[in-house]
Design goal:
This protein has 14 helices and 4 strands. The protein is mainly alpha-helical. The strands form 2 sheets. The protein has a two-stranded antiparallel ribbon. Strands 3-4 form a two-stranded antiparallel ribbon. The longest helix is centred in the middle third of the chain and has 31 residues, at 104-134. The relative contact order is 0.11.
Length: 333
Amino acid sequence: MPPQQAGPSLPPQQAGPPRRKRDWRPVYLIAPSMVILAVVIMYPVLRAVYLSFQSDRGFDQDTGRFIDGGFAGLAHYTRWIFQQTTSSLGETISCPPGTLCSNFWESVGVTFFFAAVTVTVEVVLGFWMAIIMSRTFMGRSLLRASVLIPWAIPTAVTAKLWYFIFADQGIANRIMGRQVGWLTDDWAARFAVIISDVWKTTPFVALLILAGLQMIPQDVYEAAKVDGANAWQRFTQITLPLVKPALMVAILFRTLDVLRMYDLPAILHGVSGASPTTTVSILVVADIRQGNFNSASALSTLVFLMIFGVAFIMVKWLGANAIRTQDAERRGA
């Protein structure tokens, strides 16, 4: 029998769908903005790091002239961290009491104390306010608008307002019926800053938490009521887990904001660097006022590293990454 002729050859089947050509238009649209942000943000950071390794302009005892200085290595960093300075004879000594470098660790403690207390109080009050504002009642829109007024007031105006309230003959002492040195006593001055900051920024925390509460379906609460869950069980088993992304974002924003706090304690108690409410940011400005620009650059670099470390810990291990938390909830993790 004659061999059968093979039919027409078929084209080989493709392994998958054709690859799409990458669209670079979004990159072209955002590239100019990203370049401008990189220049505006990265240049000051890199410039501050460079200056932190340079000596401050000073008086040369040998020549009797002012010199611009040179490479200083880690001298500025050791000045702040180990509280050491150089005497007129060139010897390394401990920072004398009352100098700025002697107040470094105290200002760090004050800064973290403000962050811990204010963020805790603001989260508790903000959660309570958000739960009330999430309910349906007459005048809810008016309440939401009025609550945001303290947050909308500029910080300088807020600080001056509370400065008059905490004065010796101010409203606070008149209501309490006693003389409290809100502007002079160490711990009273610190709590004056905390009260002022809580009054101003609690609405911001409440607004973020309210946004998270609005995303929770009401059907979940209705199903929990049918199953016999009480109010506390609904709060701990439904509200807290589902509002966690917004809550962690609020805690992250407020913590980073308090760690760089400057204007509120500066207006209330001054920027001398020796007040009981001196934060690290106030210490940076006080050092600049004394003409130590390179030393202040080192201190500002330390502040940057401190804030970056806190943010990394909160995002990496405390669940402040809202996107990752939402993805985990969708997968049931």
